[in-house]
Design brief:
This protein is of the alpha+beta class. The strands form two sheets. A four-stranded mixed beta sheet has the order 6-5-4-7, with helices on one face. A three-stranded antiparallel beta sheet has the order 1-2-3, with no helix packed on it. Keywords: Hydrolase.
Length: 97
């Protein structure tokens, strides 16, 4: 991509340099992630979870398809409950309306 500056990813939770070395990585605990996911779902906000460069959603829907088309990346589809049991996650909310 010929990028010569830091790259800001996942709404700022991950910043990498030109060689993809991590400059900053902000994660939250499982309990915090579970609380935020519940709150977002209760409010009807789309939720995506990330671990490294892996993208997770619970179902394909409008915002998931749009993001997939923009980024040319396909998400992994699985229950977040199962995901919390397996991974430490980078968390990102997308509240597009």
């Amino acid at each position: 991509m010929n990028i010569n500056n830091p790259i800001i990813c996942y709404n700022g939770t991950l910043i990498v340099d030109e060689q993809t070395n991590i400059i900053s990585n902000v994660t939250i605990s499982f309990s915090e992630a579970k609380q935020v996911v519940k709150l977002a779902k209760d409010k009807g906000i789309h939720v995506s979870l990330y671990k490294g460069d892996e993208w997770y959603v619970e179902k394909l829907e409008k915002w998931t398809r749009q993001e997939s088309e923009i980024t040319n990346v396909s998400p992994n589809i699985m229950s977040f409950i199962n995901l919390f049991d397996v991974f430490t996650v980078l968390f990102s909310l997308m509240s597009l309306s």
